[in-house]
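Components:
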Amino acid sequence: MNDPALLRSRAERLAAPLPALLAGAQHLARTVLLGSHGRRRPGQGDEFWQYRPAMPGDEARSVDWRRSGRSDGHFVRQMEWQAAQSVMFWVDRSRSMSFATDGAPSKAARASELALAAAILLNHGGERVGLSDHGLPPRTGALQLLRMAQALEDDDATPADYGAPRAREMPSRSRAVFASDFMGDITPVEGALLEAADRGVGGVLLHVLDPQEEAFPFDGRTIFESMGGTLRHETLKARDLRDRYLARLAERKARLQHLARVTGWQYHLHHTDGPATAPLLWLYSALERTG
Amino acid sequence: MWILGPIGFTAPWLLLGLLALPVLWLLLRAVPPAPIRRQFPGVALLLGLTDDAHQSDRTPWWLLLLRALAVAALIVGFAGPVLNPSERAAGDGPLLVLLDGSWADARDWPRRIDRVEQALTEAARDNRPVAIVTLTDRPEGDLPFRAAQDWAAQLPGLTPRAWAPSGVAEWAAGLEGGFDTIWLSDGVARDWRAAALDALEDRGAVRVFQSPRPIYGLTPPVFEDGAIALSALRADAAGAAEITVAARGLDPNGIERELARETLAFEDGSREAQLALSLPPELRNRVSRFEIPGIRSAGAVVLTDDALRRREIALISGSDDREGLSLLSPLHYLRQALEPVADLIDGSLSDVLLANPDVIVLADVATLPEGQAREVERWVEEGGLLLRFAGPRLAASDVGRGDEAPLMPVRLRAGGRSVGGAMSWGEPKALRTFSEGSPFYGLAVSPEVRVNAQVMAQPDPTLAERTIASLTDGTPLVTRNRIGQGQVVLFHVTANAEWSSLPLSGLFVSMLERLAVSTRPARPSAADLAGTTWSVDAVLDAFGQVDEAGTYPGIPGEDLAAAQPGPDTPPGLYAGEDRRVALNVLGPDAALEAAAWPAHVPVEGLGIARETDLKGWFLAAAIAVLAGDILASLWLGGRLTGPRASAAAVFLALLIPVGEARAQDAERAPLGEFAIEATSEVVLAHVMTGDAQVDEIAAAGLEGLSRTLFARTSVEPAAPMGIDLETDELAFFPFLYWPVTPDQPVPSDAAYAKLNAYLRGGGMILFDTRDADVAGFGAATPAGRKLQELARPLDIPPLEPVPEDHVLTRTFYLLQDFPGRRMGRDVWVEAAPPDAEAIEGMPFRNLNDNVTPVVIGGNDWAAAWAIDDAGNTLLPVGRGFAGERQREIALRFGVNLVMHVLTGNYKSDQVHVPALLDRLGQ
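Structure:
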């Protein structure tokens, strides 16, 4: 037992279930102060929510006699609604998400971190979280978080250049988070969103972009290749393309915002050179709202 | 070599490579810059975007041009371009490079050396042995033929000499073997030139190089008719020309500077120009040399010696001048002998001593009054020459009888003697030949000189060494004693012809000259200098610089008189016992003439078209263009970003000549800012005088005063300001400190108008002459005079010294005197009205109701107040505790002054306090 090598291997095995991503996400999640995650409305639950005057139609047994005894009217004791929700995350793991510029994390890393941190927060709030594309149906508990972390860290992700969400895996009336750069073909995204809307799934579109993708700081004769190398475009004067590229990017953003508006989703644009806390806060509150 | 205009090519066939340029153009044109491969997710959005139609995938023309230029520069560079290629026939056989190396060469010496260098280069190319010979410094024996490369190192060591070569014809005739000659002549005609040329032409071809620049020379100046006659020579008589001649010498501070400058004009066709330069005697005696400024040649410099120096001689005789008997006057012959060669001073001895003459002649003066004797003695010790002549009075007096009188070289026996007279035996005595060691040694004794009366010297142990001339019977005729730096000389006869015929002879004049009493009119002859030995005091080098003499042997006077400048007698200043003789490059009767060469000898100028190898330049240009191509390619390829871009920018910035970054003149802040700064706090101000040190002290002083006020009173001034009277508004300042310097500029009328308005408006100016003197009515100091000048246009009321009961004595501290760094006398303020009287029971008068507009003193207050940044005092005041006390009083005066400015006569009104209290019903 005193063999240090053995000790170390055991320690590593012990530490292995806690992926770095999970640690980072937990660190991130800790920055958001978490109160009890109620639904802020009366319903089934354990916590007291409010007394309300008894109305005709209330069952007699629902009257809280102890409260009613202190006044002339009858009061009904209501509990806070604490039904657990399912939140499905879809984090784009395509090749294009692995793009990163100096000083900023890759889009995939940032998206995974944000998703996992949100999942941790939701888990604290008692919600069930799941990861589509990885066959992780919504569950609750630390083990689920660990599975999500492992799945997100899994390197043999989709080898495709651009990814698209699938709405089929989502339980109806659940909520969803789509984190991607939405650079590829917009049609699958559109379809997934519409289908999700059909199934009563509300959610959040987290648009993660690299600063270079916003600035397009290129010049001269250049051959642009997609990360997987499937797409390529050659230009003699990259600078001339900038305006037109930016117009197309703006159009893509507008399209996503429009889709979100139509389907009742919420849209947020995040650049990887910015801090992760702000989008996490937004994500969390947006999930509150869509509930 | 293939020559194209001014450029030749050593490898012209390489230029064929230029033909390949068009091909290169086409090749390069088809190859656009390589693309960059970038991974970029946004490519999905780029799909379908096309480049502008006119964008071609070819290299831009200017980049092509740049590259073609680089290649062209490389090709041309390797083809070996040479600027100014010299077409010359390659010679063979030994080559003799002959330089005259005289003073006339000195002016163009560097160009001559350049020419020699070129000859060496050519000889090295043709592999010829070379000998370089300077005619003024000829090597012994055979010509030293060596490889040209050997000589290159010795070229800087070649120097011209300050004399002309001599004996060249014989030397040239003695040369053997065959060689070509390159002769760099100095352009002055010499009598040996033709013979030497013939001898050299016997050996081989001769080429002559000669500078076309005119040659000028100065001949020794002569003193004539009260002016210095100076003549300049030139070698080429053609054309009119003007040169300037400068007289240089020591100024009274011992610094050599130019004393006079005149222009000399050569007429067309004349080789000589004359100038009569009239200088005041004081200045003339200081002149040590004349030179033609701008010509570095010994010929253009002429040293002066005693010939120009006119001694000041005071003649004093014991007897009253008997009217009409001038031939019997003791001074008549002296006057005759000295008048042409010296400046005579007349007057009483006490007057004459003030003029500090070189020589005082006392003819038959026996005794001097006690005080004068001491003064004369001091004068002799400082270098004066006291020349005494005997006479009846001296013979009759008791001077130097018992013991040696200080102003008498020997003791005298009573009475003297007379020989050969009617009442005596013997013949009149003749002079004995002067012995060696006497200053007269070498002078021929004229036989007709007879002495029939003289005063006799007492035989003393020192008599022999003090005797410098004696009669045939051995009795001393002239004795001399050195006292300090000067000497006393006694002629044992009278200065007139009464006792001897010496004053009638020419020998008398020569003796006076040898004694350096008189100065010789011109260059001394051999007879004048016979028997003397001269040492070289200073030598003149070929470039006209006067150097200290090294070790030269002494030169006999006869040789010196006949000497021509040469290796043994270099031109310069020669010092004898008491005299100095200059040996100049050009003698008094020298002439300059341009060298004439036979028609068949090619004479060329020194101008050389230097071959310049351009290969390096072309290659460097090619590299520079290629470097530019790198930048351009990077830029074109869109890779000139980030650190590369900044590095390129720095590189380009280095290429651009940086314009002189001149700090903009510190414009005064706009009036508004200035006004706010001056008025937001109490600010003490001082007038900028233009003297940086005074201004600094004034600022530091006001800073010290400000801090003192801050610490001790409720006045809390801000940092003091310096005021330019011309530009700044004065009305903001309650108080101006004005240090007066003798050389500060007087303000303009506009500034005076401002100052007067300021004074009328209640401002106060503290004038400080800083000399502690002005207050005593003194305009004696320069600062005092300047103060008067400065203050004249000011509107200043009548002034008086601060009265005891002036409010200035009690505005804060009780003071009675107002010292600064100096403890001067009175300080002046506005005078009290004449009707001011002390009221009964009041300690002081009710004086003027205003602030005094000026306070004038000279106590250098700012210096006493001055502190540095750390609060330490800047300048010492007095000594010890008393000094510190004085500084404290000075500060108190400053506090009182500022309080007075700010509160006016408030303290005077305190006198009414009892009455006010009374009225209030206390």
